[in-house]
Each structure stands twice: as structure tokens, then as C-alpha cells.
Amino acid sequence: MKRFLSVLVLGAGLFSLHAQQDQGGISPEMLNRIKQSYQGTPADKAIRNAIGNNDIRKLALNQDNLQGLDTYFSVKVNSKGISNQKSSGRCWLFTGLNVMRAKSIAKYGLGDFEFSQNYSFFWDQLEKANLFLQGIIDTRTKPMDDKMVEWLFRNPLSDGGTFTGVADIVTKYGLVPKEVMPETNSSDNTGRMADLISQKLREFGLQLRDEAAKGSKLPALEKQKTEMLGTVYRMLVLNLGVPPTEFTWTRKDAQGNPVETAQYTPQSFLQKYGDENLLNNYVMLMNDPSREYYKCYEIDYDRHRYDGQNWKYVNLPADEIKEMAIASLKDSTMMYFSCDVGKFLNSERGLLDVNNYDYASLMGTGFGMDKKQRIQSFASSSSHAMTLMAVDLKEGKPVKWMVENSWGPSNGYQGHLIMTDEWFNEYMFRLVVEKRFATPKVLEVLKQKPVRLPAWDPMFSSEE
User: 91-108 vs 117-138: helix axis angle to the nearest 10?
Assistant: First the structure.
């Protein structure tokens, strides 16, 4: 009897397996057909041996595209000193501060000058901690599997961001020179600190929800949140240092000679050397062909302060964005620029070119998605921010562009990356220009009520 039942169970299992195969599984016959794609020819074996022992990018490196790198640019904004974000995700912050830095260098004839990224990052992290905790309080009556609650606990803190975040933090907390609050090991390498603070924030978030469930009213929850932020503040001080409230700083000229010594607060330093009206002076442009052009969009909860601004942008065709970029560069004004930097990057040459690598010949199959399809299928999105500083024009049309990067002076082409105009079309996503360079059409679109996109929209799930 037991043997009969065993046979019956086995038979049922086989029937279930065949049923799955009939409904979309891989049957033995299908597998045989699939296997025919690899014939094991001498050419197949040679490619297999090569890939098994080498970096795919080196094997796919397009030899026809290795001619001398053209580093001439007809329109170029001068820059001094390449910054280095090291092992952190603060490219957005370095880029935003570098845009202001270039103006200060030009206005005051400074040498290798930088604003303190560590100072701004300190306040960014504290503000994001408050954004999370206040979000938990605001959603306290919703279940744990609510989409917004789930998103909050998945994203309690990050070192990524956008230009809107630069504006949020700088306008509230001001700026200081780099030597007044220099980098630390934790600001250069943010991962461990971020993990610890994120873990603490999630713990605090659960405590706030528990207190709310027990009947605690809003004033009590707000008081508890303040105490929790005190813990976060102490952790930040231990890792990043104490943010200065006033300081003495000596301005030096390009030759290193002292020019002026004065006492500052972060706000007075912002007023003199930065831009205290960042949000009103700039407009963010996006090239996202998966969404309707000439529309204004806003990303819910994509801000760095609870009392700050959500990220708002105008979606445009790439050619119209280029027009404003060229106008800005011709006026010697750098711009915040972000892109999918990992695609077709030859880091040794510092070149972004869709012809850098011939993956199709190596793999024996083409890769044919366009930009819209790559966005829709999560194959491409903005991953890194840099400072757009140069364009090369031929008969008025751009042929290549150059950005100042924040990966150190030995990376790429002397700390810069050069991109072809074709690459720009395919992998550029965001550009921030001063409103004085925006076209009347863009300014008109800005008057629209923004289409509000959720915080978890896939296009913005991986901030640069």
C-alpha cells in the first residue's frame, strides 16, 4: 500500500512538472533547441576562453575608436583644482558647491578654493534624519505594509541627492571654507556611518509608531523625535566634527598671497562667496523620453529638509536643453549636470562614447533599446552628478562636451570626463541652468501646476 502511494505521489509530481512546462516552463525539447545557440566551434571556444580569463570591457574595447583624444573645446569655463568625493555618494553636493565655487574663484581671483563639503553634509544628514522621523509621525496611523511607510523604512537616510538638496541645505545653514571644517574619514567613507545611523533611525521609527499606537498625542511624539535627533546629532559630531558657528578666514589670491582677513558666520560667508537665492535663480531640466515633454513634474518627498522644497523639473527634448547649456557656457557659467555615467565609460581615457565598446561583436548579439526603452525597463537612470564646463562647437552644433568630475585629479582626463554629443543624447538626464538662460517656453512651463510623481518612482529610486 505504501509503495502504491509513493508511486502515486511521484506520478502526481511528474504530472505537475509537465503541467508547469506546458504553461511556460523549460521542457526537455525546448532545452535542446536552446542549447543549439552555442555550437562549440573554434571561434566560440576562443571567445569563451578569452572572456573566462579577462575583463569583458577590455575584450570589447573598440580598437577603431582609440585614435588620439581631442581635448580642444571652443567654449570652456576655466576651473581650478579637482575635488574628490572619495568613497561617498556626495557627488550632488560636490557638484552643486563646485558651481558656486567657480563663480567665487572668478569674482575674487582665488586660487585652489573649495567650500566645505563636510559642513554641508553634516546638516544634510541631520535634516534627512528629521525628514524620516517626521514622515513616520505623519504616517503613524497607516499600516506597515502601506506603500509610503514601506518606502520610508527602506530609505531612512542616504548620502545621495540632487541640486534641490544643495539649495535646501545651503540656504538654511550657509557655507564655510573647506579648511574651517575639513573632511574626516567618515565623510570620505560614508558607508559605515550611514549604516549605523540608518539602523538607529529605523529603531526610532518603530518606537514612534508603537507610542502612537498606545495613544500618544502629537506633542509627545514631537518631543520624543527631538530627543532622537539629539542622538543622531551626537553620532554626526563624533563622525564629522562640530559645525562652526563663526570663524576667521583669510582670503588669498591666485598666487597664495593674503588679501583680506575677516570674521564670518556661515550665513555671512554664503552672502559674500556663495548664492543665497539658489532655489529662485535656477531651473532643473530633464530629458526623459518616457514621459511627456513640456510638462512640469515634482517628485513627492524628494527633498532634503522636511520644510524644504520637493524636486521640481521641466521635461524637454535634449536639443532644447543643449541650447540653454551652450548659452550658459558662452557666459562662462558652469552647470550642475547628471547622467548615467557608467555606460560606455573608458575611465583610463576619461571618455564617454557609445562607440568605446563593441559588446555586440563579442557576444554575437545586438543591444537595441533606445533611451525611452532603457528607462522603462530600468536599464538606465541618472547615477552621478558632475559640473558641465565646456562644449566644442562645429558650425554652431555641439560635437563633444566636458565635465569637471569629483573623483580626484588622477581620474579620467586630468580629473575631467569628455563625452561625445551622441553619448550626451543617450545618457544625459538632468541639467540645472540659471533662469536667465532659460527660454521663454521653459519659463512658461514652470508656471504649470506640477504633475506629482511618487517618491518610489523608478526613475528616481537611485539618486546620484
Answer: 140
CA angle 25, 26, 31 (to 5 degrees): 170
- What mean pLDDT do residues 420-430 have? 98
Pull the grid cell for residue 404: 569637471
Q: At what angle do helices 163-173 and 266-273 cross, to 10 degrees?
A: 120
**Element holding 451 (H helix, E strand):** strand 451-453
The residues assigned a catalytic role are 91, 384, 405
Give Dmax over CA atoms of the chain in angstroms: 100
Between CA 381 and CA 369 the distance in angstroms is: 14
Task: Please give the full DSSP string across 370-436, using - where no structure is assigned.
Answer: -HHHHHHTTS----EEEEEEEEEEETTEEEEEEEE-SB-TTSTBTTEEEEEHHHHHHHEEEEEEEGG
Read off the pLDDT band of 70 (50, 70, 90): very high
Q: Summarize the confidence of residues 122-141 as an average pLDDT.
A: 98
Q: Do 137 and 148 contact (CB within 8 A), yes or no?
A: no
pLDDT band at 406 (very low <50, low <70, confident <90, very high): very high
CB within 8 Å of 362: residues ≥ 6 apart: 47, 51, 56, 59, 60
**Beta partners for residue 253, in sequence order:** 110
Q: Supply the DSSP string of 312-373, one letter for each residue.
A: EEEE--HHHHHHHHHHHHHTT--EEEEE-TTTTEETTTTEE-TTSB-HHHHHTS-----HHH
For residue 30, the one-letter residue type is M
Q: Which helix (H) or strand (E) holds 14?
A: helix 2-22
**Three-state SS annotation for 117-146:** HHHHHHHHHHHHHHHHHHHHHHCCCCCCCC
Closest CA to 106 of 72, 80, 76: 80
CB 387 within 8 A of CB 95: yes
All three cell numbers of 403, joined, read 565635465
Query: How many Å separate Cα 454 from the centre of its chain?
Result: 18
